[in-house]
Write a structure and sequence with these properties.
The structure holds 2 protein chains of 2 kinds. Chain A is mainly alpha-helical. Helix content of chain A is 61%, strand content 4%. Chain A contains 15 helices and 3 strands. Chain B has one domain (2-103, 121-226, 253-262). Chain B has helices at 2-41, 44-51, 54-63, 65-79, 87-96, 112-120, 125-141, 145-162, 168-185, 188-204, 208-223, 236-240, 254-262. The chains are: A mainly alpha, B mainly alpha. Chain A binds chain B through residues 14-21, 24-25, 27-32, 34-36, 38, 41-42, 44-45, 48-49, 52, 54-59, 62-63, 65-66, 69-70, 72-73, 168, and chain B through 188-189, 199, 203, 208-209, 211-213, 215-216, 218-220, 222-226, 237-238, 240-244, 249-254, 256-258, 260-261.
């Protein structure tokens, strides 16, 4: 239907809307989130990032911006750990008193990336008097994800859809739905040792309850919950919670903190500036050098004479 | 006493206006003097000092555009070479903005002292670009985006043609405001290739200041989703097609693309 069709030259056929849409799409720079063109431009931006290097001598504000844009690209390309690292650094490099708009943009994106990583953002950002009101929609999201409340999540999304779209974060927030379901599933698996899958679906208020089994299976495979599925009876059987301290979890947590501290240390060493020509103070001027050489030569001669004697 | 009270506000207003415009002109002259010192001595602090004029001048331009236009016109006649490529377009653009209340004082050429003073004023290309940057910010602040977009491209071309490394810190600002003008106008695609070309040049020149700014502008250029432009009527392509009654989730309505086809 979409391909070229023979038509009479006298009676021009109006092109079908899908054709218009598809033929104009390559010319459009960046349409709404659902369109694939949006990602295409991010691909181009990512290519630019790989081909270029950010100059080291550039100022802190430019570096903060660069880190923010890099963080956004990485987040959209599912590299959440890298995105989180960039955004955390951007927060640290951003000016502390000025540039509230930039800081808010970084905080908002940072909160979403943290949620996508399965972490809960710090409360301080949502409580600060300057950022309390603009961060309110994101606070509702965080609360919904933390409790695994799918209904609250849906309500927050519908209520603040315009804000999220204006912040260009809507695409990322749509991805959070899976995290909400997983958080809810984890709470249920902790509370019940044995529960029917239909009851789980009812508790989670899923749109399609028939998907519950596959969602639970995926969660078990990813290690979100410790449980088994009884397919014949359609029941989720939770295992006894294991002691976290017998696993590698604490080691991973410590490793993360140590890496962060080492990065801070390395950045501090890099940023340390020495006063110009400070190293030259210890050096002697030409006359003093000559005098010293003469003294050394005399000493050497005296020693040589002593040796002969 | 009553008479003084009646006439005082008007007199005060006139004298205040004169005073403000004189201060604006003096600020610009001081900036040009520091700029000249930077060109001769290449000390970065002089350039930083010269660029400090931007913030207060923009503020002044927002409060009383006539004063800013008068100061810029005076600067164009005294500190920019008559043969400068951007002089005529800048004068034309300044003509579009609110004009100063009192006429711009013409430089007196009768006395020998003035002649000597005039000869001592250097008309560097840096002055031309700085005035261009101020004109661009003034246009943006007064919503003259349609005029600002082609002028910003002209200014970028001029910076590229001059090939002076002393222009780097001003060029950085020029790129920023040019990109901003295009973003406000919704034509970010049009500035993408000039920005890429400028970035390539900056990389080859090891010009880290412009390199960092241009890389950030390009990343923004790729990422920003442009808002639809309501002031453009729907085009022919979209008027021919008929929208389907139900549009799938992944299909964008054709009318959405209409403004983008025309935008570059």
């Amino acid at each position: 239907m979409i391909g070229p069709t023979p038509s009479s030259p006298l009676i021009p056929r109006p092109p079908r809307p899908p054709l218009t849409s598809s033929s104009l799409r390559p010319l459009a720079p960046s349409p709404h989130p659902p369109s694939p063109q949006h990602y295409k431009l991010f691909d181009q931006a990512e290519k630019l990032l790989t081909k270029t290097t950010f100059p080291e001598s550039a100022g802190a504000t430019q570096l903060a911006r660069y880190l923010y844009y890099t963080g956004r690209i990485k987040a959209l390309q599912l590299e959440y750990t890298e995105a989180h690292r960039c955004l955390l650094q951007a927060q640290r490099k951003a000016p502390t008193t000025k540039g509230l708009g930039f800081r808010l943009a970084v905080y908002k994106l940072g909160a979403i990336v943290q949620l996508l990583l399965g972490e809960i953002p710090e409360r301080a950002v949502f409580r600060h008097p300057q950022s309390r009101a603009p961060m309110r929609p994101y606070l509702e999201l965080v609360q919904a994800v933390r409790l695994g409340d799918l209904a609250a999540f849906r309500m927050a999304m519908e209520k603040h859809a315009a804000t999220f779209t204006a912040d260009s974060n809507y695409t990322l927030i749509v991805r959070l739905r899976q995290n909400v379901i997983r958080a809810g599933l984890r709470n249920i698996s902790l509370a019940y040792s044995r529960i029917a899958l239909s009851d789980v679906a009812a508790k989670l208020v899923l749109d399609h309850p028939e998907d519950m089994e596959s969602i639970a299976a995926k969660a078990i495979r990813d290690g979100v919950i410790e449980a088994t599925l009884d397919h014949a009876n359609a029941v989720l059987i939770s295992k006894d919670p294991t002691d976290v301290y017998s696993t590698l979890e604490p080691q991973a947590a410590f490793h993360k903190r140590i890496t962060f501290c080492l990065n801070v240390h390395n950045d501090a060493v890099k940023a340390m500036s020495y006063p110009p020509d400070a190293h030259k103070d210890g050096l002697l001027d030409a006359d003093a050098m000559k005098q010293r050489q003469l003294e050394e030569a005399e000493l050497a001669e005296a020693l040589a004479e002593e040796d002969y004697e | 006493m009553a008479t003084r009270v009646r006439y005082a506000p008007r007199l005060a207003h006139i004298s205040l206006n004169c005073c403000v415009s004189a201060i604006a002109r003096a600020d610009l002259s001081a900036a040009f003097a520091v700029l000249e010192r930077f060109v001769n001595a290449r000390e970065p602090r002089h350039m930083v000092q010269a660029l400090r004029v931007l913030g207060p001048f923009r503020k002044k331009g927002k409060e009383s555009p006539g004063v800013a236009v008068g100061a810029l016109m005076a600067a164009l006649s005294t500190h920019v070479a008559p043969s400068a490529a951007l002089r005529a377009p800048m004068l034309a653009l300044l003509g579009m903005l609110p004009q100063p209340a009192e006429p711009v004082p013409a430089p007196a050429a009768s006395e020998d002292k003035d002649d000597e003073k005039k000869a001592s004023i250097s008309k560097l290309p840096e002055n031309e670009v700085l005035v261009g940057l101020l004109v661009l910010t003034l246009l943006l602040d007064h919503n003259q985006v349609i005029a600002a977009v082609p002028f910003s491209l002209q200014l970028m071309e001029r910076v590229g043609a001059l090939k002076r490394r002393t222009l780097d810190p001003i060029a950085e600002r020029v790129y920023f405001y040019a990109s901003w003008a295009h973003e406000v106008n919704g034509t970010l695609v049009a500035i993408r290739s000039p920005l890429l070309a400028a970035h390539r040049t900056a990389c080859l020149h090891h010009n880290s200041t412009c390199q960092a700014t241009l890389l950030n502008l390009l990343l923004r250029n790729y990422q920003v989703r442009l808002p639809p432009r309501p002031h453009h009527p729907p085009g022919r392509a979209s008027s021919v097609g008929v929208s389907p009654p139900l549009i799938g989730q992944h299909r964008v309505p054709p009318s959405y693309h209409a403004h983008r086809v025309r935008s570059p």
